[in-house]
Amino acid sequence: MNIVLLSGGSGKRLWPLSNDTRSKQxxxxxxxxxxxxxSMVQRVYRQILTVDSSATVTIAxxxxxxxxxxxxxxxxxxxxxxxxxxxxxPAIALAAAYLHDVQGVPETExxxxxxxxxxxxxxxxxxxxxxxxxxxxxxxxxxxxxIEPTYPSAKYGYIIPEEKEAVSRVSRFKEKPDEExxxxxxxxxxxxxxxxxxxxLSYVLQRAHxxxxxxxxxxxxxxxxxxxxxxxxxxxxEHEPHIEVMxxxxxxxxxxxxxxxxxxxxxxxxxxxxxxxxCENVHVVNELDVPVLCMGLKDMVVSASxxxxxxxxxxxxxxxxxxxxAIDQQIMxxxxxxxxxxxxxxxxxxxxxxxxxxxxxxxxxxxHERRDEVWTVIEGEGRTIIDGVERKVKAGDVIRMxxxxxxxxxxxxxxxxxxxQLGKDISVGDKRKYPSPKNTDIDSHKFQP
Amino acid sequence: MNIVLLSGGSGKRLWPLSNDTRSKQxxxxxxxxxxxxxSMVQRVYRQILTVDSSATVTIAxxxxxxxxxxxxxxxxxxxxxxxxxxxxxPAIALAAAYLHDVQGVPETExxxxxxxxxxxxxxxxxxxxxxxxxxxxxxxxxxxxxIEPTYPSAKYGYIIPEEKEAVSRVSRFKEKPDEExxxxxxxxxxxxxxxxxxxxLSYVLQRAHxxxxxxxxxxxxxxxxxxxxxxxxxxxxEHEPHIEVMxxxxxxxxxxxxxxxxxxxxxxxxxxxxxxxxCENVHVVNELDVPVLCMGLKDMVVSASxxxxxxxxxxxxxxxxxxxxAIDQQIMxxxxxxxxxxxxxxxxxxxxxxxxxxxxxxxxxxxHERRDEVWTVIEGEGRTIIDGVERKVKAGDVIRMxxxxxxxxxxxxxxxxxxxQLGKDISVGDKRKYPSPKNTDIDSHKFQP
Lengths: 449, 449
Fold this sequence. Notes:
Oligomer: homodimer
Structural class of chain A: alpha+beta
Shape of chain A: globular
Helix content of chain A: 10-25%
Largest interface: A-B, 60 and 60 residues
Number of strands of chain A: 30
Distance between the termini of chain A: 29 Å
Radius of gyration of chain A: 24 Å
Largest sheet of chain A: 6 strands, antiparallel
Low-confidence stretches of chain A: 441-449
Number of helices of chain A: 10
């Protein structure tokens, strides 16, 4: 199976766990069999590989998510990076060109496109596999998944099939209706449109070449910012007369808000939390090291992270976005391809962060114009390169870098560092990157930001 | 006026703002006219000095609060330190001996004793002043303040006066009654007993010498741990036939719980907080640097500090103590006589703290057996003494101390330092103190912990 996972979204709706660099799909909130927690993207990736261990998985996403994807899924997963946001048609066209030109997928094979964040069981991916086989062999150019509705939702678009068979031609598409109209649609056999569909690679490449002038993936990537913003529905689906729909009757949930997310939580709390006996229908997700004590709460969600604290009635939590938009605060936590960092103190002329590097990874070789830095290694072993000079470091070592000095740190084992930044004008933009010094034995592909 | 403020309490009830080292009276929660915040003890101290600028104020407290008292009130305030907890009679006897032998207060003068944490206005301290004058001139040996009840409370003891005059002989004392009995008492003219009373110094010293064998303050201090635990009520009040009560009809609130504390807050929030329009009767006290977003809450208190996060229904918040007792966590924030510290990161073999030293102050000269330390100065100027060698330091300087090396830092201006502690067995108990090196020009009295 070739599968493209569309990974978008800013993550405002699940603040404070999500922020501008960490979308909701990267929050580790689902308990695995081993007792660890995994994110939506990790869960979906694991489920796909369980159903089809040879699946070609490609994540279509923006630049800002690439670090988090490699951090959570490793470097084997394919990533089709959109240089900027241009809606779903250019994104799918780019992913299709990536599959063909970079991954070498033959034009005759089918591709399944699916959002990265459905909360589903294994049977869903078995259905995707079937959807792909169907698209490869069907006379139709597009095969959609139609989810059997469990209630008359006004949140989804509807697909009205011609027949009640497992696979049927599509009669009509319907935009998000009101609840009453939804009830009517459902009585006529309508299915939810979850944005999941499959096609032969040749079909989408052909449509892409008809609408965009480009040679190959590299060329399309280069001119991506000149492309028109247009949805796949508008550019392709609406003009295609040969569309089929395949029914799916299994569990399917859309994890868009705190309300729906907490429904999928196995226990009332993740992280340090105490709920007294008078709490009812309360969920706590606490990423901080200190406890959250809840007393006498009903129908509420409480979440604490390095970004902030949310205390909300569950129904109210769906109105969170404008309030989060109005919060003007720097990123306090980020996952990078090489590990993660967390801001632990901010003063006017200093900032202190805790840097965690995964074993075998390293930072870019870089310098800052307007700040000095001090590293105190608190765990692990590795090497620093300061102004071209390599040196072994371990827990307890202290390294000073004055402004302008190129520097990097390489983690031979997992490494933790307290970094104190000192200067009058500290900003993430103050960074100059240099090519990697040659005499280091680290694979360079791991070192992209 | 000579006034003794009894400052006790562990601070569990106002967690997470209070903890084992920061009692509720030190939380800065009351807005002053200049827009800053002051604590209960700062508010009371300021109010006393406004009413009587020459008042001799003595705080009777335990060792653990001395740092916070000097940090918040400066070094001019008198402090009678109880070497261990021995209930109110030994504490008041010790404070009386301290006033007489250390502060030189004549035996003929009166002393007013009052809890450190009433939430009151100026008129209360004018009443205390009058109470003191009354005790100096009265034939009675004790004059109590009787607060005119505003509702039939079951939380307070009652004083039944003989007459309705401003000052009357006491007819009877009543223990905390149920609400109905309280109503009965009030109909008979009973007053609340707020634990406020005045006496001539000679009287309490005489009672103390009758019950305890001691020469003077130093002697009493030395044998304090051998004294019997006994309350002032039981040891003195119950045996005293000549007691008067003076009425007080002004505002008086006891700030024991989150519920009563939030009633005294001028605005719904302190610190970074956003309350959406559907919040009703919600108070937020946030000591963290990140925002708290509240949506759809009713009758609730939310508080966040380096110690943890409380989210509670206001009525439920009075049952907090057992939950806080069960939280086993190290102190994350403390005020010291020289400034404060905050734990900002904890790992298995390291701990990172932010140390703030007030100008002109310094740490004790000390060493640790089982940890190295690294200081990075992030703000201000000062001097370090490492193994006897003094050196000037300023923002950007890094100082390393290996285990066993005596060290201290002296703040010439306000100073902030990131301290990384490194070792396998980090504990607050691992501290050896040394006498101050002689060649420093800092007043030694400021350097007590």
